[in-house]
């Protein structure tokens, strides 16, 4: 019988994680290059390089510098926010299918954004993000009030509560848009979830919320490892479970609010990425969070590029593509959970 020592096992696990980090960084660089180079407007490599390094205002330069580059930067930021929010929710709730889009949190943010735009005429993302933050926190509280209690540990009960609340929020959004046709025209592509036609200068007001959310999330890794051992064990290690959960809720609210205010309610990214990361990183939340923040933009930008190419010369918005891909992953995950629980 071969006995593997603990130090050897730890070295192997660490080597796997470092290798995964390298792969994710390379994949992120590749998908960024694809997002800048590929699209419904077919450009040569020379035209793309000219636009990046010798901009002179030509048609190809405008497509790359004024359309694709901002879209790529937005995809990186939104992907980071959604991936971290999903990883945080799964760690805090110990629920493998917790995710801001699936549980209606993004749509809760969207409801107040549409409300603020319809009633108060607010259109600046820096103003809308406050409404998005309140909406995301309110949706979180509502999900746990309906799907919580003694059944809070049940993934299916929490998911059903989130799906029901999401359906209600979608209905409210549609009602507000039907009442105000001007808002309907403005919000149509945004509510689908899109990275297209976004003004980065206007989105600058979201950066402080994004930065605070990312920093809070990444700092919670060690505390989440303690919390995974149970509340009593976490307290014995010097952690405060109530503070950890409250900080996590604030971080998720900030991340979901900024992503939703910037590009609309995009689902399933926060569900898929943490599960893929845990296959190589294990249950150490420091590595899960660190890899999720890099892997989620790979998934989001990859889906955005796929949407541009599949419907060329038109485009499928990224929210549609993530719904299709994420829906398949969700079904597979539910089937896996049923098999494990038998």
From TrEMBL:
It is found in: Cell membrane. The keyword Ubl conjugation does not apply. The keyword Cell wall biogenesis/degradation does not apply. InterPro entries: ABC_BtuC-like, ABC_transptr_permease_BtuC. This is FecCD family ABC transporter permease. It is a multi-pass membrane protein. It comes from Prauserella oleivorans. Pfam families: FecCD. SUPFAM superfamilies: ABC transporter involved in vitamin B12 uptake, BtuC. The chain crosses the membrane at residues 18-38, 72-89, 101-122, 128-146, 158-179, 199-221, 242-267, 318-337. Gene3D superfamilies: ABC transporter involved in vitamin B12 uptake, BtuC. Keywords: Cell membrane, Membrane, Transmembrane, Transmembrane helix, Transport. Belongs to the binding-protein-dependent transport system permease family. FecCD subfamily.
């Amino acid at each position: 019988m071969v006995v593997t020592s603990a130090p050897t096992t730890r070295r192997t696990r660490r080597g796997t994680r470092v290798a995964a980090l390298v792969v994710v960084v390379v994949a992120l660089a590749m998908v960024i290059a694809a997002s800048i180079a590929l699209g419904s407007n077919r450009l040569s490599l020379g035209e793309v390089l000219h636009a990046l390094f010798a901009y002179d205002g030509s048609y190809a330069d405008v497509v790359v510098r004024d359309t694709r580059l901002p879209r790529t930067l937005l995809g990186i930021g939104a992907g980071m926010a959604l991936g971290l929010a999903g990883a945080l929710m799964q760690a805090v709730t110990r629920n493998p299918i917790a995710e801001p889009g699936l549980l209606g949190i993004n749509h809760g943010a969207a409801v107040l954004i549409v409300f603020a735009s319809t009633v108060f005429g607010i259109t600046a993302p820096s103003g809308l993000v406050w409404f998005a933050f309140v909406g995301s926190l309110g949706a979180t509280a509502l999900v746990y009030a309906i799907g919580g209690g003694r059944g809070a540990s049940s993934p299916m009960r929490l998911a059903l509560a989130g799906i029901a609340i999401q359906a209600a929020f979608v209905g409210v959004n549609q009602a507000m848009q039907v009442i105000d046709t001007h808002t309907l025209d403005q919000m149509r592509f945004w509510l689908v979830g899109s990275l297209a036609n976004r003004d980065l200068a206007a989105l600058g007001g979201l950066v402080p919320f994004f930065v605070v959310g990312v920093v809070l999330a990444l700092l919670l890794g060690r505390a989440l490892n303690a919390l995974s051992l149970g509340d009593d064990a976490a307290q014995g290690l010097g952690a405060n479970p109530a503070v950890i959960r409250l900080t996590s809720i604030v971080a998720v609210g900030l991340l979901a609010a900024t992503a939703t205010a910037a590009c609309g309610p995009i689902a399933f990214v926060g569900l898929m990425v943490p599960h893929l990361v845990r296959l190589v990183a294990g249950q150490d939340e420091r590595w899960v969070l660190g890899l999720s923040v890099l892997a989620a933009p790979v998934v989001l930008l990859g889906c955005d590029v796929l949407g541009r190419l599949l419907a060329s010369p038109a485009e499928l918005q990224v929210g549609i593509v993530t719904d299709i891909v994420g829906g398949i992953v969700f079904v597979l995950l539910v089937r896996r959970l049923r098999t494990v629980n038998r």
